[in-house]
């Protein structure tokens, strides 16, 4: 019995250490690598975005992926280390981080959708479309940010209030936010982006196969193939690594 108790205690300690420092590791490493990515994409070599409009989306994704790290991940570290979270520290922090926890991942996901759309257009259209102009890509990014700001703006208006004991309640007085918004987030953050990405990349793969039987130059064919395959891998990794957590939040959420 004593040996079993010691083993269980050791497991609990190891789990607590992992739960404490793994989110911090994600925040530090994610901030470092996303910042490095943004800096590289801003170098002179990549400034000619007229040839690679995808760079606009990739720069924006690097920024929003950094912001995304300082939501739940950082709160997990603070909770296990100091016993509090920024989301429950004050009403202002509660509104801000409740908003960011949904806004940043949704924007990041839909920027990836438009990267897929850009790849599809670049391979399927001979002539440039409205979406293949640098200025219009920036308009699309602004529209994505604006739309998801409006969708999640209710957090600033209605969410978070003080309980009678002085603690911060993350719910709203007028309606129940959780788990409803987790389910909505599952649709906006994972399901719809997943459907669009699969549709666009299905067409991308089709056009890459078709290029093998055309007279397009070898260098251009290699450029299209390498860029598209890289983005396909990144997209599927994004979906695989984000969907399980979002599904758990949407269907297995329990209020504390």
TrEMBL record:
InterPro entries per the UniProt record, alphabetical? GPCR_Rhodpsn (IPR000276), GPCR_Rhodpsn_7TM (IPR017452)
Is Secreted one of the keywords? no
Matches recorded under PROSITE patterns: G_PROTEIN_RECEP_F1_2 (PS50262)
Q: Does the keyword Cell membrane apply?
A: yes
* UniProt keyword annotations, A-Z: Cell membrane, G-protein coupled receptor, Membrane, Receptor, Transducer, Transmembrane, Transmembrane helix
Coiled coil spans: none
Residue span(s) of domain G-protein coupled receptors family 1 profile: 33-256
Output a single Gene Ontology CC term carried by this record: plasma membrane
Where do transmembrane segments lie in this chain? 20-41, 53-71, 77-103, 137-159, 187-209, 229-253
The Gene Ontology terms for molecular function here are:
G protein-coupled peptide receptor activity
The way this protein sits in the membrane is described as: Multi-pass membrane protein
**Localization, UniProt:** Cell membrane
Biological process, per Gene Ontology:
neuropeptide signaling pathway
Q: Which domain of life is it from?
A: Eukaryota
Q: What is this protein called?
A: G-protein coupled receptors family 1 profile domain-containing protein
């Amino acid at each position: 019995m004593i040996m079993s108790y010691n083993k269980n205690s050791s497991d609990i300690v190891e789990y607590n250490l992992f739960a404490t420092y793994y989110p911090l590791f994600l925040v530090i490493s994610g901030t470092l690598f996303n910042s490095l990515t943004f800096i590289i994409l801003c170098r002179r070599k990549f400034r000619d975005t007229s040839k690679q409009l995808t760079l606009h989306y990739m720069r924006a994704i690097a920024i929003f992926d950094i912001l995304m790290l300082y939501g739940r991940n950082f709160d997990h570290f603070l909770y296990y280390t100091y016993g509090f979270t920024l989301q429950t520290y004050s009403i202002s922090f509660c509104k801000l981080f409740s908003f960011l926890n949904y806004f940043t991942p949704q924007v990041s996901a839909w920027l990836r959708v438009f990267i897929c759309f850009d790849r599809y257009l670049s391979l399927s259209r001979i002539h440039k479309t409205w979406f293949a102009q640098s200025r219009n890509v920036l308009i699309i990014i602004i529209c994505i940010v604006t739309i998801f700001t409006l969708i999640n703006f209710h957090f600033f208006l209605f969410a978070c209030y003080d309980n009678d004991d002085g603690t911060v309640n993350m719910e709203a007085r007028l309606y129940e936010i959780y788990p409803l918004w987790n389910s909505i987030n599952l649709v906006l953050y994972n399901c719809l982006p997943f459907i669009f990405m699969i549709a666009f990349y299905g067409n991308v793969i089709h056009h890459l196969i078709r290029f093998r039987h055309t007279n397009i130059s070898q260098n251009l064919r290699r450029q299209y193939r390498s860029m598209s395959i890289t983005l396909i891998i990144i997209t599927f990794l994004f979906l695989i690594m984000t969907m399980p957590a979002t599904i758990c939040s949407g269907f297995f959420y329990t209020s504390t």
